[in-house]
Specification:
The complex is a heterodimer. In chain A, 75% of the residues lie in helices and 1% in strands. By secondary structure, chain A is an all-alpha fold. Chain A has one domain. A 6-stranded mixed beta sheet of chain B has the order 6-7-8-3-9-10, sandwiched between helices. Chain B has a 4-stranded antiparallel beta sheet with strand order 2-1-4-5, with helices on one face. Chain B starts with a strand and ends in a 6-residue tail after the last helix. Classes of the chains: A mainly alpha, B alpha/beta.
Chain lengths: 285, 244
């Protein structure tokens, strides 16, 4: 029962960032891999200011929000100045730079040790109430993104992803749409960044390493890029697989590599199967 | 200054002159044909007018204001609509969504005047006989239907200047008549049209004036009859007559 509760909680915690990333990468076909970078830039200012600098939670939240939104704006800015390959590489650079800062700026971030003692709100002290809160908060977030996806904004994003020239010729501003999409993704990263360290009582840089980004990409690709329901289902199934591996009678030294190998194969298969959705043939004007 | 004014517009890419000091005016309500052999710079000129390329020299004015440095979306919001050669519709979206997304991209003040968008969407589809396919993906349409949908969408989106890039390309002869009918409707509504076309009889039927481009320069300008009878046009399209 406690494993099931854990599975539901961690799946729900990851959903905001995955759903946000699905909007940008899946629906918008904006080739960026900086979602976990956004999460670092949301979670670290938030929790460091609260735990290490004794700031009020609201102040920490504000700091995390500003930091995530500035990073999102930077990625959006890069998205309309670089070609897709360039953006892909640059967004990985943004992620790794942010990760390197938190790993090496030890006087502030405590480096690889992470920040222990992340407090939970008093009403979320036990895991059941925490899980209920997470389910409610994440459901509200998902409904918000779903409504956005079905709104004029969603149609504009889809039109731009299909052919940016055709869309811009109708008066759709690529800049505005990309900025909103990245801000939503940053909002998702912030929500995950608020919930995950509270659940673990720890802000750990290993949760923001590159394999975490691979997992996010895998959930979006396997669930059909752009499909919110698909991304949610894929996240649930892949999380079940990821956490389920812990139950196998394997030594901890073997579980990690097996998981990476398995996820590598799943990603390879998903990208191959979804190649037309991910890399649609460019239409001529 | 005309409704659309192109002054000394040039475009050079890696030292190669694609457009060379092109100048002409288009007056309000006029239908102007832009013809010339392949590679003469017609579509490039359209790309400059819609803002997808920036000229290396010269200026473009629309309704008296300089739009040379405006982005494509700003130009569209100012009233320049474009119909692309390879069907500028979104094939993964339904027909309904194709119209809706265009209406939603209009400036706020214009949107307020539209009234019920759903009604307008269905009226636009009905205009080209596609109302029964409203929920179908646009990718399932024939070339002619895609073209009709694209022109109707541009027409209903309150554009004042239409840039039509080979509207009869990929369209069956039967549908060409319908496309021609839609362009005639644009004319009746007082819209200004600049049209690229290789079909000279088609140009002759619908245009008030024809401009001929060759190797990036305007080489001829006049009424369709004047242009058709000119020796220069014969030379451009068929080469110099060896007997003369």
């Amino acid at each position: 029962m406690s494993f099931l509760l854990h599975l539901i909680t961690v799946t729900c915690i990851l959903l905001p960032t995955i759903v946000g990333y699905n909007l940008v990468f899946g629906k918008g076909k904006i080739f960026h891999f900086g979602q976990i970078g956004l999460q670092i830039l949301a979670a670290y200012p938030l929790w460091i200011s609260i735990v290490l600098f004794d700031q009020y939670p609201i102040m920490g939240l504000l700091l995390g929000l500003i930091s995530a939104f500035v990073a999102a704006w930077l990625l959006a800015w890069l998205s309309f100045r670089l070609d897709p390959d360039g953006l892909g590489v640059m967004s990985i650079a943004v992620h790794l730079s942010a990760l390197n800062v938190v790993l090496n700026w030890q006087s502030v971030t405590r480096g690889a040790l992470g920040v222990p003692g992340i407090p939970r709100w008093s009403f979320l002290a036990d895991n059941v109430s925490f899980a209920i809160f997470v389910i409610v908060a994440v459901s509200v977030w998902c409904v918000f993104v779903w409504l956005l996806d079905r709104s004029a904004f969603g149609r504009k994003l889809q039109a731009l992803s299909e052919h940016d020239w055709y869309a811009e010729a109708l008066g759709i501003s690529r800049k505005n749409v990309h900025i909103v999409a990245f801000l939503v993704a940053a909002g998702g990263a912030l929500l995950t960044g608020v919930l995950l360290p509270q659940y673990l009582y720890l802000l750990s840089p290993t949760d923001f390493a590159f394999p975490a980004m691979i997992f996010v990409v895998m959930c979006v690709v396997a669930g059909k890029p752009g499909s919110m329901g698909g991304a949610i289902l894929a996240t649930a199934l892949l999380m079940m697989l990821k956490e389920g591996l812990r139950l196998l009678p394997l030594s901890p030294g073997v579980v990690g590599p097996v998981r990476l190998l398995l996820f590598g194969l799943i990603l390879l298969g998903a990208v191959w199967y979804r190649r037309d959705a991910l890399f649609p043939p460019q239409r001529e004007i | 200054m005309g409704f659309l004014s192109i002054r000394e517009v040039s475009l050079a890419i890696q030292g190669h002159m694609i457009l060379d000091h092109v100048s002409f005016d288009v007056n309000q309500g006029e239908v102007v044909g832009l013809i010339g052999p392949n590679g003469s710079g017609k579509t490039t000129l359209f790309n400059l007018l819609s803002g997808f390329l920036a000229p290396t020299g010269g200026s473009i004015h629309f309704r008296g204001s300089d739009i040379t440095n405006c982005s494509p979306s700003v130009r569209a919001q100012k009233g320049i609509g474009r119909v692309f050669q390879n069907f500028g519709i979104f094939r993964d979206m339904t027909l309904e969504e194709n119209i809706l997304v265009a209406l939603e991209a209009l400036p706020h003040e214009q949107k307020k005047l539209l009234g019920d968008m759903k009604f307008l969407v269905h009226r636009t589809l009905a205009m080209v006989g596609l109302e029964k396919s409203a929920k179908k993906k646009a990718g399932a349409l024939s070339g002619g239907q895609m073209r009709l949908l694209e022109i109707a969408r541009t027409l209903k989106c309150g554009k004042d200047l239409f840039l039509l890039d080979e509207p009869t390309a990929g369209v069956s002869p039967k549908m060409t008549g319908q496309v021609s009918g839609l362009i005639a409707e644009l004319k009746r509504e007082g819209k200004t049209v600049l049209i690229i076309e290789h079909d000279l009889p088609f140009i002759g039927r619908i245009c008030d004036r024809v401009i001929v481009l060759d190797v990036g320069k305007v080489v001829l300008e006049g009424t369709p009859d004047e242009v058709k009878q000119s020796k220069e046009l014969q030379e451009i399209y068929f080469g110099a007559d060896p007997t003369t």
